[in-house]
Inverse folding.
């Protein structure tokens, strides 16, 4: 208990760092994932190829390797940004591949007849997409997107090892100060549990509100 | 009518001739843009002198090649041990979760949920830093705890996905629970679970690279050693260009194997009934496996 109370600001800084990483990267991942998913279902062949390559490569890349390449590699091209931005880029791109797959399988769960019916009523492509297909797809992608975001929050721990301020990294500061390492890790674990349980609660609410009744 | 390349979505009809022409135009334009981007990256690579002889020289040396191969060997070693142990742990935890005794079930659920909710890196660091374990056992233990818990969920949902009548029929024949499990449910479940298990092993293979962060001498670590060598003018980009295809290729091979198995099984009438939810990392949402 002592470890938490006397170092509350260190923990709070790390906790907020993890939250910040998670929020920004998930926004990036959702946007990129949406773009890639629309590429993967596009009628144009080269868009599909691009989306498929993006997803296949990123899904099979170890995140540590991606961090290694982005954080230490991009500066070699004269692109110097704060490490936090690099970390968000790496996390967001990595997760976008998983988001893309979740969204794509959500779109594929919408029966063909729905789109055909909408078109036969004279709806344009935009109307079909925004009024018929996406609202139905959205309902079925809530759980997989939720678990992907939870995985993202957990993966953000890797950023700490590349000297970005986040929750796991606090252990280093505290162990240098001579605090009990086991209790430090206990509070770090509690912090991660708070974050993952919060995300899962948010997506539970979304699921209750909009999910497909099963 | 031409066969539609993409008939599974509700998004659009079969394109007519004008639309096809437009799509072809988009295709050519986007290909040009992508090629332009690639050319720009290539130009950047040349411009910053990534293809100079000094930077690629180290890969000609026997010692460096041996260093890389040893790193690769260590990665595969950690993966093999972690995969075997997590299959064992997953089995044990799944047996616990399917137990008839409430206390055992409760305990197994607690363990599974805890380790699935924790970042695997936190566990690895905890074992490495707080318990002062050597890098390899720390990495293997962390990976085993996490992947074992996820696999336990896969196993459980696989066994539960076997048609109910199968278990009921076996009980009606007077089999005990152990017999029902080993003779009836598990053999059928394993077939259906195999793709999900292999996909989880891909996660384990990818996560062995976390060993780099606790100074385990694996593939990435070997790369880092070469990359930070001043004699070769810090060949960082060349190292990434050599290492990542190998890493990604290994994971891709395993992923393709999983896809191949699942495709093969889709044709097999014996396993048609059971569909196992894929092993999503750390799903805490009820109603989702």
């Amino acid at each position: 208990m002592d470890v938490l109370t006397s170092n509350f600001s260190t923990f709070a800084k790390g906790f907020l760092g993890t939250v910040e990483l998670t929020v920004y990267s998930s926004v990036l991942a959702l946007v990129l994932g949406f773009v890639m998913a629309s590429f993967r279902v596009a009628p144009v062949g080269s868009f599909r190829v691009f989306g498929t390559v993006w997803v296949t490569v990123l899904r099979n890349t170890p995140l540590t390797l991606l961090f290694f390449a982005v954080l230490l590699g991009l500066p070699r091209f004269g692109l110097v940004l704060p490490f936090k931005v690099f970390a968000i880029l790496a996390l967001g791109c990595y997760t976008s591949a998983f988001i893309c797959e979740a969204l794509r399988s959500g779109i594929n769960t919408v029966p063909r007849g729905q789109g055909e019916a909408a078109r036969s009523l004279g709806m344009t492509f935009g109307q079909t997409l925004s009024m018929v297909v996406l609202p139905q797809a959205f309902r079925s992608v809530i759980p997989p997107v939720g678990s992907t975001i939870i995985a993202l929050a957990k993966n953000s721990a890797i950023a700490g090892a590349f000297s970005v301020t986040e929750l796991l990294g606090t252990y280093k500061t505290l162990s240098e100060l001579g605090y009990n390492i086991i209790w430090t890790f206990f509070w770090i674990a509690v912090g991660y549990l708070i974050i993952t349980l919060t995300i899962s609660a948010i997506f539970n609410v979304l699921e209750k509100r909009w999910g497909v009744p099963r | 009518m031409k066969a539609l390349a993409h008939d599974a979505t509700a998004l659009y009809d079969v394109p007519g001739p004008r639309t096809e022409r437009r799509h072809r135009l988009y295709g050519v334009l986007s290909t040009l843009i992508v090629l332009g981007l690639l050319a720009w990256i290539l130009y950047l690579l040349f411009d910053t002198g990534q293809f100079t002889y000094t930077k690629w020289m180290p890969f000609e040396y026997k010692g460096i090649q041996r260093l890389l191969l040893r790193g690769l060997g260590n990665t595969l070693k950690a993966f093999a041990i972690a995969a075997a142990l997590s299959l064992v742990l997953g089995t044990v935890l799944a047996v616990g979760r399917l137990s008839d005794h409430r206390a055992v079930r409760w305990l197994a659920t607690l363990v599974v949920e805890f380790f699935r909710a924790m970042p695997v890196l936190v566990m690895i660091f905890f074992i490495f830093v707080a318990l002062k374990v050597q890098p390899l056992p720390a990495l293997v233990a962390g990976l085993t705890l996490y992947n074992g818990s996820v696999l336990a969920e896969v196993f459980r949902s696989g066994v539960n996905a076997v048609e109910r009548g199968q278990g009921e029929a076996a009980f009606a024949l007077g089999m005990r629970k152990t017999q029902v499990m080993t003779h009836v449910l598990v053999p059928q479940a394993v077939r259906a679970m195999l793709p999900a298990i292999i996909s989880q092993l891909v996660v384990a293979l990818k996560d062995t690279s976390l060993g780099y962060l606790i100074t385990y001498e694996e593939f990435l670590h070997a790369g880092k050693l070469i990359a930070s060598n001043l004699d070769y003018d810090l060949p960082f980009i060349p190292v990434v260009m050599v290492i990542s295809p190998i890493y990604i290729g290994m994971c891709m091979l395993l992923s393709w194997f999983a896809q191949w198995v699942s495709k093969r099984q889709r044709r097999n009438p014996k396993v048609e009934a059971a569909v196992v939810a894929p092993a999503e990392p750390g799903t805490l949402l009820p109603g989702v496996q």
